[in-house]
Amino acid sequence: MESTRIQIPDELFAPAESSHFEGEYQIDRLEVGPDEYVFCGPLSWQVDVTNTGEAFLVMGTVEGEAVTLCGRCLEEVRVTLGGEVDGYYLIDPASAEDLEDMEGDEFDVLGEDDVIDIEGPIRAALLLEIPLVPLCDEDCKGLCLSCGSNLNEGPCDCEPVEEVEEEEPANNPFAVLKSLKLDD
Ligand SMILES: [Zn+2]
Ligand SMILES: [Zn+2]
Q1: What separation in Å is there between the alpha carbon of 163 and the centre of ligand 2?
Q2: Cα 37 to ligand 1 centroid, rounded to whole Å
Q3: Positive or negative, the Cα torsion across 119, 127, 104, 47?
Q4: At CA 155, angle to CA 152 and CA 159, rounded to 5?
Q5: Residue span of the structural domain in which 159 resides
Q6: How far apart are CA 143 and CA 70, in angstroms?
Q7: Is residue 145, in this structure, part of any structural domain at all?
Q8: Any idea which ligand is nearest the CA of 142?
Q9: What's the domain count of the chain?
Q10: pLDDT tens-digit profile of 70-94?
């Protein structure tokens, strides 16, 4: 199945029935705040769909590889993103009204032609797994604030703290504090 759409087979309309589905999700990129993840290939997903009587409960996983930039040194980093997919698709759209008051729980409705689309739950699963700040290495030293050298490749010739103050006194909030002190 090369999409996130699952055609619910007739036998799954019997309460307590459950079936396993697998597929691939083609997504090129995902933007999360300042970070962009470019996927290396389609993501693979696998879920169990269970008929609870009033809804199709979807539970499974998704996994894929993406490339993004390290938050400190801006080098490309390859990350594996994987997460738990869960969704809830009401069989009878009319019952959705009863659930309007339900807090916290997300639900959807069985689509026309007995299809459910799990793209939403898959994206939600990926977003949950994405790191706040992607790093090439937990010990990444980042870039020199003065000359921009990648400090993972070795130390630069700068003396970091002094250099910053001399070059950009206007942009440095501490420069103001310094002059206040001089007035004392
Ligand atoms: Zn890095
Ligand atoms: Zn430097």
Answers
A1: 9
A2: 15
A3: positive
A4: 135
A5: 151-183
A6: 11
A7: no
A8: 1
A9: 2
A10: 999 999 999 999 999 999 999 987 7
